[in-house]
Amino acid sequence: MEVIKITPLLRENVKAFFEAHWGSPQMVISSGVYNCSDLDGFAVLNKYGEIIGLITYIVSGHECEIISLDSIDEGKGIGTLLVQEVEVLAKREGCLTLNLITTNDNLNALKFWQKRGFTLSQVLCNAVEKARKIKPSIPMIGFEGIPIRDELLLVKKIN
């Protein structure tokens, strides 16, 4: 698998990917409102040039925040490869921490991130309710019927 940096030529494919998988490239979380198709990131393409993995991030000061991570083929190492690529970039940029936010219902994400050295740093109670005021399409019920209410901040220190 080859990881490539998102370039201007790939932007339309990135936008189409977010629209197909998330309904829109807009991400609303407590750290901000983002158009993920405009963010820096990396992608993994299949042999047909289609995106099968995508990660976006923002570097600010000594922090790198992962805004989105998607893998079409779970369990094949695509997500891990993309996270490692961002971690290398964050270290090169002088970041001290790698941060991300997920929601309380996303148990698979919690497992994924903790296995890769991230720790739960903060629970932002009812943060999703605030996000719904900006993006009403955020569902009320998430994975396995769990109500989506809270955001969870996970952090990894970069050596």
General description of the model:
This protein is α+β, with helices and mostly antiparallel strands and about 160 residues long. The chain has one domain: 3-Layer(aba) Sandwich (Aminopeptidase), CATH 3.40.630. The chain is about 30% helix and about 35% strand. It has 4 helices and 9 strands; from the N terminus they run βαβββββαβαβαβ. It has helices at about 10-20, 80-90, 105-115, 125-135; strands spanning about 5, 25-30, 30-35, 40-45, 50-60, 65-70, 95-105, 120-125, 150-155. A 7-stranded mixed beta sheet has the order 1-4-5-6-7-9-8, sandwiched between helices. A two-stranded antiparallel ribbon has the order 2-3. Strand 4 (about 40-45) and strand 5 form a beta hairpin. It is globular. The two termini are about 25 Å apart.
Features:
9 strands; alpha+beta; 159 residues; seven-stranded mixed beta sheet; Aminopeptidase; two-stranded antiparallel sheet; globular
How are the SSEs placed, and which strands pair?
Elements: E1 3-5, H1 11-22, E2 26-29, E3 32-35, E4 40-45, E5 51-60, E6 63-71, H2 78-92, E7 97-103, H3 107-115, E8 119-124, H4 127-134, E9 151-157
Parallel strand pairs: 6-7
Antiparallel strand pairs: 1-4, 2-3, 4-5, 5-6, 7-9, 8-9
Distance between the termini: 26 Å
What's the number of domains?
Answer: 1
CATH superfamily: Gcn5-related N-acetyltransferase (GNAT)
Helix-strand category:
alpha+beta
Radius of gyration, CA atoms, in whole angstroms: 15 Å
Number of helices: 4
CATH-defined architecture: 3-Layer(aba) Sandwich
* Residues in β-strands, percent: 35-45%
Total strands: the figure is 9
- CATH fold-level topology: Aminopeptidase
Poorly predicted ranges: none
Main sheet? Answer: 7 strands, mixed
Could you name the CATH class?
Alpha Beta
The general outline is globular
Strand order of the largest sheet: 1-4-5-6-7-9-8
Helix share of residues? Answer: 25-40%
Average pLDDT metric: 94
